[in-house]
Write a structure and sequence with these properties.
Shape: globular
Order of helices and strands: HHEHHHEHHHHH
Radius of gyration: 20 Å
Strand content: under 5%
Number of helices: 10
Oligomer: single chain
């Protein structure tokens, strides 16, 4: 076998576990583009009295945008650095379930909100960033919040990682702070409603028991069986 063939074979063996994620992202972005641009009718507005009590705060654009790096970092860490590949599959399975549920809800239950202020009282670099965000991200298809679901899913994966718990516990603490900040940002920036956030958190609970509890039970059975050998 030539060096070129060996190179490509080695590359495939090392990174083939990333292929399902890349294919799913193409699927997700295609469906998301469709639901975002289809004609809007029979829209269900998800606004509660609690949303009116939450003030607009443009500074939260920072943790909101950090979400993209947060999720990407976690996926790449578990894909390329963490040796226990099962943790990678647990994370991407968890993310995939939540994002697929979001697409299904958006397709069958058009939803949105009208919480964004028409005029912003302040003008600064953060408000300009928020305006740019609002221009590319509409206030439709918000249930459940993908920002919230993915943030919690990532933190669960990080907190479950034995390597990080033993060697870098500060990463888990930092992840928790960032996760909470992102959740708050979705409401302070008027990107999502309280209903979107609560729905995402409830979905996180269901996915946790579906994805992580069976894996934990399997590890316990494996450890017990080794003790008897």
């Amino acid at each position: 076998m030539t060096k070129t063939k060996l190179f490509w074979k080695d590359l495939w063996i090392r990174y083939r576990h990333l292929v399902p994620v890349l294919l799913y992202m193409l699927f997700y972005l295609s469906v998301f583009a469709y639901v975002e641009n289809r004609p809007r009718h029979d829209m269900h507005f998800l606004i509660s009295k609690w949303d009116r009590l939450i003030p607009f705060c443009e500074v939260f654009i920072i943790p909101y945008l950090l979400w993209f790096f947060y999720v990407a970092f976690a996926v790449l860490f578990f894909a390329l650095v963490e040796k226990d590949r099962s943790q990678y599959w647990s994370l991407v399975t968890n993310l995939g379930i939540g994002m697929t549920v979001f697409l299904i809800v958006s397709l069958v239950y058009p939803n949105g909100h009208t919480l964004r202020p028409v005029f912003l009282e302040r003008s600064n670099v953060f408000t300009e960033m928020v305006k740019a965000l609002w221009r590319v991200d509409t206030s439709t298809n918000v249930l459940p919040s993908v920002h919230v679901f993915n943030s919690v899913a990532v933190h669960i994966a990080i907190s479950q990682c034995s390597t990080l718990r033993k060697k870098h516990p500060w990463v888990i603490s930092s992840s928790l702070v960032l996760c909470i900040s992102i959740i708050a940002a979705t409401m302070f920036l008027k990107q999502h409603t309280v209903i979107d956030v609560i729905t995402a958190l409830l979905l996180n609970i269901g996915c946790y028991y579906l994805v992580y509890q069976p894996a934990a039970a399997g590890r316990q059975i494996s450890q017990s069986s080794r003790r008897w050998q």
